[in-house]
Design brief:
Elements (H helix, E strand, L loop, with lengths): L1 H22 L5 H24 L1 H7 L11
């Protein structure tokens, strides 16, 4: 489970980096504000679920259609 949480943190950093790189302006203030907000929101949600409800976090990491879901 810890490896999945670390991967989620690293994966969360890819999206804001792409936004700033593709904008062509690394000094874009609105982009930095959004990226910081996005990372803080994602990290806080992952940490909260990891501490308070790890079963839900484990369920969120399953592939779609895994478990008891029907196609």
């Amino acid at each position: 489970m810890e490896k999945k949480v670390i991967f989620a943190f690293l994966f969360t950093l890819i999206f804001p980096a792409l936004i700033l790189i593709l904008s062509g302006d690394l000094l874009w203030p609105a982009g930095w504000i959004f990226c910081i907000w996005f990372v803080l929101l994602c990290f806080s949600t992952i940490l909260y679920l990891y501490r308070k409800n790890p079963a839900l976090l484990a369920e969120r990491y399953q592939k779609p259609g895994a478990g008891t879901q029907k196609g």
